[in-house]
Write a structure and sequence with these properties.
Elements: H1 5-22, H2 24-47, H3 52-60, H4 62-109
Length: about 110
Amino acid sequence: MPLTKQEQDFLEYWEANRNNKKKFLRQFSIGLPLGVLMVVAIVINLFSGWNKKAEMVARGNASFMYTVVIAVVAISVFITVFSSRHKWEQNEQRYQELKQKEKAAGAAHS
């Protein structure tokens, strides 16, 4: 079965950009909005006041705030790197599958 126009376009795009998209800083910049969104949700949840005991601990202990900041940064970096690498891996897998499909279609026509 021959490749569709969309599949052929993806193959051309990914062949041209796959090495660029694998670079760490590029992946980091792509995944950063998701990481920041998760951090914002955590901070809003922490300081919304729905849990009075957690709010008292947060306001009464200065080292707690350092822990929260470190945790927020760690969560943000993890989500950013994980989501961008996952997306790259999905595209790479699709690319490999389409290359196999293209190869099989070429062999069938020969």
